[in-house]
Amino acid sequence: MNWKQAPLGPVQTNAYVLYNDEGEAVIFDPGGDGKAFEAALKKENIQPLAILLTHAHFDHIGAVDHIRDAFNIPVYIHQLEAHWLQDPSKNLSVNMTAEGITARSAEHVIEGEQSFTVGPFAFRVVETPGHSPGSISYYHEPTGTVFSGDVLFQSGIGRTDLPGADEATLLNSIHQKLLELPENTSVACGHGPTTTISAEMDGNPFLNGL
After folding, report:
1. C-alpha pair distances (Å), 100 with each of 61, 84, 134, 210
2. Which of 78, 118, 119, 129 is the most exposed place for a label (fewest CB within 10 A)?
3. Domain of 194: which CATH number?
């Protein structure tokens, strides 16, 4: 198994494609550019099985319905943000376009921390609120990767000046959940380059007071 990063949408949010040798895949946070993303997946003979959302801010959901319909696949989201998909004020798109950005209801609502599988892909869901109330991270042990959305970045952390965000909660999520993962875990961030748990433990100024 392997994964690829695909910056999409108005602010180049990182979508991720986790795939196996047979071309089966799951998609994380398709934020926009639905037609181009669909074409790229089909060109690579990738067959998505599901869309997994780390949270429901507009820049992470812009191509959800396009990709869902193109491949006839379900969407997963945490229960605290399930209703944000249809609400431009909650997903913060109300000021982005005249209509806002919305998506239909998710087929699967995640309640609490759990392990689950999508086809051959097994994940451990970790609740990591702080950037948003329903932010979750998906730990994929076979590739040693956590798909963390906007919780932890290379030398940074997610924004906490947004509605429903809280800096103390976010830092607690990072310290108590993400930094407890193996130090060689790759962090597939929602924006910017990927990093590792060890790199952020050693050099992230928001975490160690450098």
Report:
1. 12, 12, 20, 39
2. 119
3. 3.60.15.10
